[in-house]
Design a protein that fits this description.
- This protein is α+β, with helices and mostly antiparallel strands and 130 residues long.
- The chain has a domain of 69 residues.
- The chain contains 3 helices and 7 strands.
- The strands form 3 sheets. Strands 3-6-4 form a 3-stranded antiparallel sheet, with no helix packed on it. Strands 1-2 form a two-stranded antiparallel sheet.
- A hairpin with a 4-residue loop joins strand 1 and strand 2.
Length: 130
């Protein structure tokens, strides 16, 4: 028999565990975790919606193709374009530059920190500045 002093804490711990499992399940069902289910979720994940088959294509672009996020590339890396002096000055001052289109980086060249465009944006961190 469980001691009466231990019963309440055990019930609370069990409730927290069960609640956490339930919330985790609900979180995993959010549309953003299933881009293949709708055009909106696909586009939000930077995928390409195929209307004829109603499927989402993620990470499909080969090296050299235009991209705005590494999620669009087979290698997972969208390399930034050459920055203008004005853009570089913004980066150097700790600001971000957005609205950029990069190029899918070759998978065999991905080593250590590779400069990247992330959701159309470049920052000091995405350019491997420490």
């Amino acid at each position: 028999m469980i001691n009466k002093n231990l019963r309440t804490p055990l019930i609370i711990i069990a409730a927290i565990c069960i609640g956490g499992i339930g919330l985790g399940f609900l979180y995993s069902q959010l549309p953003v975790h299933h881009p293949e289910r709708s055009k909106g979720a696909c586009e939000q994940s930077w995928g390409e919606w195929q209307a004829d088959t109603e499927t989402c294509i993620l990470s499909s672009r080969p090296a050299g193709e235009a991209c705005i996020d590494g999620g669009q590339c087979q290698s997972g890396v969208c390399f930034p374009p050459e920055l203008t002096a004005e853009q570089q000055a913004l980066i150097d001052s700790g600001k971000e530059v957005s609205g950029l289109t990069g190029t899918c980086y070759p998978e065999e060249l991905v080593r250590d920190c590779v400069k990247q465009v992330l959701r159309g944006t470049v920052t000091q961190e995405s350019l491997c500045f420490q």
